[in-house]
Design goal:
This protein is of the alpha+beta class and 472 residues long. 36% of the residues lie in helices and 19% in strands.
């Protein structure tokens, strides 16, 4: 079976096909904007629009697309503006005659502010409604922006703990939260977009599709957006049998810490799941016992992974065993740190709340956050939706009879859903962002797409730099 062919006309909601007949007859252009109206996080990290522009909106619409859409909507029960779409193909060469302006990707913007806007590049009564037609696709930017915002929030939480308890917080933070989310998302494209969003704040990822997407659609100076290390799963341990569990661990240490060669300057690290049978026995008698000398002399670092139980309690107990068996040094900030050849990573049950709980448990017992890293799967890429940050796309202006008028809604039943009016600008004054009436010379919205082509693209390095500015 052949895959479904891409057709941008059909990437919309069914009811959009009926809207062109509902607008006032003298409309020749319209203007819409996108914002986070509120939600879980007080800030959003804007990210992902570039993916949609490059992957979908840079391809011209063809007569074949129009024919397919006309056939589909006729059978589907909706009217279809064939004349308008054919005008777009014939007059504009299939290129979408719109301009999209957006805040630079990676910018940390407080909720309630415009993030991007869209309008026709020139008035045209035959296709002005295309601005609304594109809403369905463009609103999907909620997903990478929400993931980027969640990842950024977690970075703040971890960095706060590192600043208090670590001697080198900025040197450690980049690899403190690893993306384990690929198998837990709804689709391959979700893995691509969501995992790329995580890489705005961190460098560690096991979601290959997301790393590929970040490399391809954004790019970095060193050519690689994310990194990983060798790691065990339960099958690679349990297949040896419980009676040979130590042999399984010895094989792991030999292959990835003793024999493995890495480029100069690259740390030799491997992570081993340790709870297949009895986690605390493995910590005490294997990692801190029978194999401790091999690990220490390898020049590498073994990161033990607890994968069950209460995360805070389990990791505290692991550190207590390690301290008793091997000792710990106290860093300049007065917190205890493991020997450099051992560490922990907690991946089970992690979300933006439980990470803080684990760090609090360690800090209260004077253990440095340097001792632990985190992995997050569904909690990072899947346990969210458009309402996590209450994203909305609304028309706020229309050109009627040659005059721009304000357009907005103000529902008496929910005033929080009031929409903005007129053309908008995002400005930064007095150290704070706000949305103002356009035009403004200090408007931070930058044209990124015009007449079917991307006119401003960002590298991941630029995106990361923008997010870093908003970290404090």
């Amino acid at each position: 079976m052949e895959p479904i062919a891409e057709n941008i006309i059909l990437d919309t909601d069914s009811y959009k096909a009926s809207h062109w007949l509902q607008y006032p007859p003298d409309v020749t252009s319209m203007y819409s904007y996108f914002e986070s109206r509120g939600g879980r996080y007080r800030d959003t990290v804007f990210f992902g629009l570039q993916y949609y522009l490059l992957e979908y909106l840079s391809r011209p619409i063809t007569r074949a697309h129009v024919d397919e859409a006309a056939t589909f909507f006729a059978a589907h029960g909706e009217p279809f503006n064939r004349e308008g779409w054919e005008h777009l193909v014939n007059h504009y060469g299939g290129r979408l005659p719109v301009r999209i302006r957006a805040v630079p990707e990676g910018t940390v913007v407080p909720i309630g502010n415009v993030l991007f806007d869209i309008e026709l590049t020139a008035p045209d009564p035959k296709v002005f409604w295309i601005v609304s037609w594109l809403e369905t696709m463009l609103v999907r930017v909620w997903y990478p922006t929400t993931v980027a915002s969640r990842s950024h929030y977690c970075k703040r939480v971890i960095l706060e703990a590192l600043v208090e308890t670590s001697a080198d917080p900025l040197g450690e933070i980049a690899f403190k939260l690893h993306d384990f989310g690929s198998r837990g998302v709804s689709s391959r494209e979700s893995a691509r977009i969501g995992a790329a969003a995580h890489l705005v704040s961190f460098r560690g990822s096991d979601t290959v599709e997301g790393v590929r997407a970040a490399n391809h659609y954004y790019g970095t100076a060193d050519g690689m957006a994310g990194y990983s290390i060798p790691a065990a799963e339960h099958s690679t341990i349990t297949m040896w049998g419980r009676e040979n569990e130590v042999a399984a661990y010895r094989n792991f240490v030999q292959k990835y810490l003793v024999e493995r060669e890495v480029p100069a300057g690259t740390p030799k690290i491997a992570a081993c799941v340790s709870d297949s049978f009895d986690l605390f026995n493995v910590i005490e008698n294997v990692w801190c016992g029978e194999l401790a000398d091999e690990i220490k002399s390898s020049g590498g670092k073994l990161v033990a992974r607890p994968d069950s139980g209460d995360p805070a309690a389990v990791n505290v107990k692991c550190l207590q065993i390690m301290e008793r068996k091997l000792g710990m040094r106290t860093n300049p900030k007065g917190f205890k740190v493991l020997p450099p050849y051992l560490g922990l990573i907690q991946g089970d049950g992690m979300n933006d709340e439980s990470i803080g709980e684990v760090l609090h448990a360690l800090r209260s017992r004077r253990y440095s956050a340097s001792n632990i890293g985190f992995g997050m799967g569904g909690g990072l890429l899947q346990q969210l939706d458009r309402d996590t940050q209450r994203f909305a796309f609304k028309c706020s202006a229309a050109l009627r009879g040659g005059q721009w008028i304000d357009v907005s809604k103000s529902p008496a039943t929910d005033m929080a859903k009031r929409s903005k009016k007129g053309h908008l600008a995002l400005v930064h004054e007095g150290g704070a962002y706000s949305t103002a009436r356009a035009p403004r010379k200090d408007d931070l919205l930058v044209p990124v797409y015009e007449n079917g082509r991307v006119v401003r693209a960002y590298t991941l390095d630029e995106v990361r730099a923008a997010a870093e500015k908003g970290l404090s």
